[in-house]
Design brief:
This protein has about 750 residues and is α/β, with parallel strands linked by helices. The strands form 5 sheets. Strands 1-9-14-13-10-12-11 form a 7-stranded mixed sheet, with helices on both faces. It has a 7-stranded parallel sheet with strand order 4-5-3-6-7-2-8, sandwiched between helices. Strands 22, 23, 24, 25, 26 and 27 form a 6-stranded antiparallel sheet that branches. Helix 3 runs parallel beside helix 4 (about 75-90), helix 8 (about 170-175) packs across helix 10 (about 200-220) and helix 10 runs parallel beside helix 18.
Length: about 750
Amino acid sequence: MAVPGWLAGDARVVAVRHRARLAGATTDWPSWLPEEVRESIVAAGIGRPWTHQVVAAEAAWSGRHVAISTPTASGKSLAYLMPIMAATAVPPQRASLGVTTGDLRSRLGVGRHTALYLAPTKALAHDQRVSARRLGPPGWQVATLDGDSATDERRFAREHAGLVLSNPDMLHRSVLPNHARWAGLLGSLRYVVVDEAHRYRGVFGSQVSAVLRRLRRLCAAYGSDPVFVLASATASNAGASGALLIGEDSPLHEVNQDASPHPSRDVILWKPASEAPREASELLARLVDDGQQVITFVASRSQAELISLRAAERIESGRRVASYRSGYLAGDRRELEARLRNRELAGVAATNALELGVDIAGLDAVVITGFPGTLESFWQQAGRAGRGERDALVVLVARDDPLDAHLLDHPELIFDRPVEQTVLCPQNPYVLGPHLAAAAQEAPLKPGDERWFGETMSDLAAGLSTQGLLRGRPAGWFWTRPERAVDAIDLRGAIGRPVEIIEADTGRVVGSVDRGAADRTVHEGAVYLHQGEQWLVTRYLPAESVAMVKQLDLPYYTQPMGVSEVHIISELARRRGGRGVVCHGVVELADQVTSYLRRDSVTGDVWDSTPLDLPVHRMTTQAMWWLVPDEVVAELAFSAVRLGAAAHAAEHTAIGLLPAFAPCDRWDIGGLSTVLHPDTNQCTIFVHDGAPGGSGFAERGFQVAEDWWGATLERLQGCGCDSGCPTCCVSPKCGNGNQLLDKASATELLGVLLGN
């Protein structure tokens, strides 16, 4: 679609980047592709493959681990399905062996050949099953394996399927601990596909890395050595990060030259005159009334609800919009997805739950409400618009946020910068230790297993022995306890089971919320939004994982308040930074939700504050911190209150800008500042990872501290407000409601600290 005139001429448009329509480049089908497989692909409407698809398929067929890193809708699925179908969809005695490095059975064409596909979401695996069945020849056995699979479906996957589509969680909890039952699959694996591999970063990525290393170890025990194919959005280090993910010493063979055609696309940066969600809802409504199908991405569940509700009120054409987010019941999500695909829904406001995993690419326009934290995520969301002959429109509506303001001032950071490098630490002992216990239960750990788990394995195993979890013997380490080791590991960092939200009058389950977010979202007295409806939480029972609610029409919303403390456990590194000292180390966080505010739905004014009695939550993670020397404090001559307000404002702005220097968003990190910290005896500003054990983001901040905090000073200096605003130092996640912030003093503090 062309940019509508009403949009192009709006003064709120601060930058536009146009990409012209691009033609694709095709090539011949691989010589080793069986004729019946080729015929089935052609019958599905694909006459010739794109060049990059064949390049990737040839590498995988020759036995090389491959990282395919091309944009959304570039055809990555066919690239890995070609070698998979050649190996698994044709009877082994008729399959062309080609130049493979598979095991002896595969070379001789004897026995079953299988492949495993892993996706970060169940929805994506189910979509890939549809795609595989559409492209594959008749009789090819394809099965999904997840927590919803019935017993007979699991048996079929074990015993008959050529391609099994699953997720890392199922592999971790069900397949690997019961590997003897899955020996037929594990011993016959020719290929393992890891889809959306760029999502496996931080602690989650380290968790999945450990699972994949456990998988490779057991495959080796059963006589297979599968080729890995990692598929991801455009990435700057897909080969290197892929090697780290699966446990290879050398980078994977990388395919990053996209030969598929692309429609034209216009990307607009929009500086709202009012709040970003309000203007995003206006854009959604206006584009829908223009006859477009639109998805609006938002940062939170509540925004998804509010934006869809506001847009529906403004739409004049009668076309329908809805919200989409996690926490909905599975049936409700599937219904929304189907209505999007058949274009019954003209628009949807969605969290990143719809960023991947559902085949809805090809919409006319994408509105992104606030920069999503990483360029990878931004371009992934943008890729939902346009496919084939359908041109694309993408609008980034900037939030009142330091990062968004910085990007509007420097649009080249969006348009001309490569996507972020993946931060991944498979040797994180908080992650690897529990997985070593799980691996030892699957099969005793031996010194040679350092091939899979790295050189720290023996020391960690010895530590687990000291704790009584493993028993060391000359032959290796053995699991000693009756329970399952995997049950102590949650790959996604969830603490306990989700809290169910139940309608008090009927007992109906309305939705759910992760335990980690429950204290802040469904505490007693909270207003919870669900599909455009307001629900008042009447009882919160964390021990029972239940929140009772009543549907009401309320003129206010609620905002949780809390306190945080940081205790330094160990300092890992320190260096000079300007006139101060920058440190990196391990810390313990203590967080507690202590009260909530009621705010007017129209004005945002605070009505009142209500105390809460909720437990303190503790977590060990990593942080960087900046020490402000006594001589700098003396030179500034600030009072203690003013110094605290300056450090607090600097902390907020720095947190908002770290995503410009590390692959995270501000919700992945947190911070704390204090005039006199008991562990340092100095004014100290902390920025910490938000996941147990650390995510690598704080460490990256330590490495680029001068550039990062220089940008922080620039943002404070460049903001036109008088005393602080969301564009510079007012934070949407401040636990004490942004009290005691001093923008001017923060500017002066950083200027002196950085030596400017």
